Amino acid sequence: MEISNIWYFLSALTLLSALMVILSKNPIHSVLYLVFTFFCISAHYVLLNAQFLMAVNIIVYAGAIMVLFLFVIMMFDLKKNIPESKSSLTKLAGSVVAGTLLVILIAIIRKNNIPGPVLEKFNSQTGMVENLGQVLYGEFLLPFELVSILFFVAMVGAVLLGKREAGERNF
Amino acid sequence: MELINTVFIAKAIIVGIVFAITLGVAAYSTYFERKIAAFMQDRIGPDRAGPFGILQPLADAVKMFMKEDFIPANSNKWLFIAGPCLSMLTALMTSAVVPFGDTVTIGGATFDLQGIDVNIGILWVFGIVSLGVYGIMIGGWASNNKFALLGAIRAASQNISYELAMGMAIITILMITGSLSTKEIVEVQQNGHWNIFYQPLGFIIFIICAFAECNRTPFDLPECETELIGGYHTEYSSMKLGFYLFAEYINMFISGAVMATLYFGGYDYPGIDFVTQQFGSNVASFVGVGALIGKSLGFVFVFMWVRWTIPRFRYDQLMNLGWTGLIPLAMYNVVVTGFGILVGKPFMVSIAGLVLLIAALFVYDQLLVKKKIA
């Protein structure tokens, strides 16, 4: 089988499941379709020979974040908390705006002729763990460390928000 | 094209054999669980089906299939069915990267006795383990039963909490080996240089987390009968319940195989050179497969031994142990291992770190913790 056929199939599957996220009525179904979308994106990473990104994508998004999403949604009483359907005028306005944005984006990409990857410079091993680590800890050390500080601050903030202190003074 | 076909067929055969072994071991684990429980409680255990009751798993399977397959009226039907399927799927996927043996040469072609040797092997295991919670959560929610939902939520929070400590225990292995590939992790440990000697603390953390991830006693709070009736599988019957229970036994066997791979040298065994000289490398490889499976079965026995020995934790104790006990310990272990690599004596430093930790805990206990006066 041609590899491009696999790519077309995967992309169609990704788009379909991403559409189902916003079209399905049940929020739990939406979350599960979103998990499936993440799996499809991970499969795209495999096609790009970026196995590390694929594993991390599954661990972080499908394994941790989406579980917490499910967690929160399962706590709702779904029969009470179904959001009211918007009026048809709102729906129409939303579709027009989204369609315009799509047209603009496609026009930008077509006008600018973004150059594709140069085949001679292409290295199939770029996505491997060793090379990724070399790049992250060598060339991009400072941004990497700054991102980790950002994450650390976010973690401290989450703990602070989650922890209720005794007495009046709460954040 | 011809080569791809041979490789594909060989891999298919290996995957099929691994699949069969896993399912067979899981089926007989149910029998041995009951036998070991009986032994520990001074009973006889199952002895009716066949000699010593060895046909008991078959009888259980027939019973499971014959029972009424009931789907609760207000449940979400498709997700109710998807729950146990997902549990089985994630339980079986992990074994793909476990190296079951060294290479075997048949007719001039060399085959790895492993599903796939990817250079992210251990991350694959970690990813699939983190997905294992979906089966339980979906099943628990789709049952439309408060107790099932509570059990599912417990399982999810427990798995997420213990994944962190587990990941940190794995990091120390990666620091020693310098590779994510399970095959390389095993090859570094050949000839008795097992990681358990370099990482005793890491192994203790890992096995505790493995107990929690498999929902085994003393961490089987998701199915705590006294509080939750039956936990996440309260509403399940027939083979759907069977799948949930079966997935637990598969998880036990596979986590045993992963622990053997990471800490006990994988398919390494004493006297491997002697066997290679006497009978050739193929025989040595197959004995290695036996060694790995034997080690995994040993871990399965430890799982059962603990189950019938130690009572269940309370839920706050479970969370306390995970967040304030294991995660700081795992961080300490990472620092000690890093120091050991820096100094160049990983073995000495890891033992010294463990001794120092025990001494510090002892001193802390003597000096600071207020003694209860009787």
Summarize this, please?
Chain A is mostly helical and 171 residues long. Chain A has a domain at 1-83: Four Helix Bundle (Hemerythrin (Met), subunit A) (Up-down Bundle). Helices cover 72% and strands 0% of the residues of chain A.
In one word, what is the shape of chain A? extended
Structural class based on helices, strands and sheet pairing of chain B: mainly alpha
Question: Can you tell me the residue ranges of chain B where pLDDT is under 50 for at least 5 consecutive residues?
Answer: none
Inertia-based shape of chain B: globular
Amino-to-carboxy terminus distance of chain B: 79 Å
Largest interface: A-B, 22 and 24 residues
Profile the largest sheet of chain B.
2 strands, antiparallel
- Oligomeric state of the chains in view: heterodimer
What is the strand arrangement across the widest sheet of chain B?
1-2
Biggest beta-sheet profile of chain A: none
Secondary-structure blueprint of this entry?
The complex is a heterodimer of chains A (171) and B (374).
Chain A: H1 3-23, H2 27-47, H3 51-75, H4 88-112, H5 129-137, H6 141-162
Helix pairs in contact in A: 1-2, 2-3
Chain B: H1 2-40, H2 56-66, H3 77-93, E1 99-106, E2 109-114, H4 121-131, H5 133-142, H6 146-177, H7 182-188, H8 195-198, H9 200-213, H10 225-228, H11 238-263, H12 272-279, H13 281-307, H14 315-343, H15 346-367
Please characterize this protein's 3D structure:
The complex is a heterodimer of chains A (171) and B (374). Helix content of chain A is 72%, strand content 0%. By secondary structure, chain A is mainly alpha-helical. Chain A contains 6 helices and no strands. Chain A has helices at residues 3-23, 27-47, 51-75, 88-112, 129-137, 141-162. Chain A has a domain at 1-83: Four Helix Bundle (Hemerythrin (Met), subunit A) (Up-down Bundle). Chain B has helices spanning 2-40, 56-66, 77-93, 121-131, 133-142, 146-177, 182-188, 195-198, 200-213, 225-228, 238-263, 272-279, 281-307, 315-343, 346-367; strands spanning 99-106, 109-114. Chain B is mainly α and 374 residues long. Chain B has one domain. In chain B, helix 1 runs parallel beside helix 13 and helix 3 runs parallel beside helix 11 (238-263). The termini of chain B are far apart. The mean pLDDT of chain B is 82. Chain B has a two-stranded antiparallel ribbon with strand order 1-2. The radius of gyration of chain B is 22 Å and the shape is globular. Chains A and B meet through helix 2 and helix 3 of A and helix 4, helix 5 and helix 6 of B.
